[in-house]
């Protein structure tokens, strides 16, 4: 029988992962599958917090092409993450998993305001906590949100679930046949080599707070559970290796 490695985790989902092969919008099948995988982890007794991106609904690049103010475009992206968070919450609840959406931007009709102690209390009661609306500030990515929230709630690890790769590579494996997959990296390696794992702000925050990161594919059923159990999967990034 497997023994859990981590007590409290932050699961980082990209917005694109919620869209599946469509690349845009929400895929009911994918969301249902993600919720089922999260339920497997909750059933192990692991405390689960989730940070979802919004790239399947809105990307800042679109705003810049429109000549939009960067802060306005970023706020629109935060609202997109709220939509994804509510969709995931609904799917979790349908599978019998109690969950709460905590938003960094107040919208009391649909989500609780983010309060650190409240989030920790929900986790202690074995509720899945979904952090929505990023950090509540423009110019910060949802990767940085995951790093910040993980530090605040004292999570043991960040599990970064990808929909197009199964780890960290030296180059894009979809365009470069010579791309090499790494099994372990240090955050300094990620920053110095410019590897597209997470932005430099998030990487530095994780490094300074000694929060390990596991990057893996969400497309294979059971991978979130494997990662939560500390099994060797994907790529592990640490402060030092």
What's the short version?
By secondary structure, the protein is an alpha/beta fold. The chain has 9 helices and 11 strands.
- The rounded Rg comes to 17 Å
H/I helix tally: 9
- Secondary-structure-based class equals alpha/beta
What portion of residues belong to β-strands? Answer: 15-25%
Q: How much is the average pLDDT? A: 94
First-last Cα distance: 28 Å
**Domain module tally:** 1
Task: Point out poorly predicted stretches.
Answer: none
Task: Jot down its keywords.
241 residues, alpha/beta, Carbamate kinase, two-stranded antiparallel ribbon, 9 helices, 39% helix, 19% strand, globular
Can you characterise this structure?
This protein is 39% helix and 19% strand. The mean pLDDT is 94. It is globular, with a radius of gyration of 17 Å. The chain has a single domain (8-238), classed as Carbamate kinase (3-Layer(aba) Sandwich). α2 packs across α4 (70-94), α6 runs parallel beside α8 (200-208) and α7 packs antiparallel against α8. The protein has 241 residues and is an alpha/beta fold.
């Amino acid at each position: 029988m497997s023994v859990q490695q981590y007590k409290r985790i932050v699961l980082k989902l990209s917005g694109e992962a919620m869209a599946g092969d469509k690349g845009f919008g929400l895929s009911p099948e994918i969301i249902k599958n993600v919720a089922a995988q999260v339920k497997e982890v909750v059933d192990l007794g692991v405390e689960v917090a989730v940070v979802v991106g919004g790239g399947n609904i809105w990307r800042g690049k679109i705003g810049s092409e429109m000549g939009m103010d960067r802060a306005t475009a970023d706020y629109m992206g935060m609202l997109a993450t709220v939509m994804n968070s509510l969709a995931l919450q609904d799917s979790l609840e349908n599978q019998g998993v109690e969950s709460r959406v905590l938003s960094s931007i107040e919208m009391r009709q649909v989500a609780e305001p983010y309060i650190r102690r409240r989030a920790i209390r929900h986790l202690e009661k074995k509720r899945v906590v979904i952090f929505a609306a990023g950090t509540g500030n423009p110019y910060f990515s949802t990767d940085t949100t995951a790093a910040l929230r993980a530090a605040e709630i004292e999570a043991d690890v960040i599990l970064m679930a990808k929909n197009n790769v199964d780890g960290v590579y030296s180059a894009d494996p979809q365009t470069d046949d010579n791309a090499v997959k790494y099994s372990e990296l240090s955050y300094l390696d990620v920053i110095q080599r410019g590897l597209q794992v997470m932005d430099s702000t998030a990487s530095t925050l994780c490094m300074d707070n000694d929060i390990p990161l596991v990057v893996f594919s969400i497309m294979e059923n059971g991978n979130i559970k494997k990662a939560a159990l500390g099994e060797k999967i994907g790529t592990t990034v640490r402060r030092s290796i």
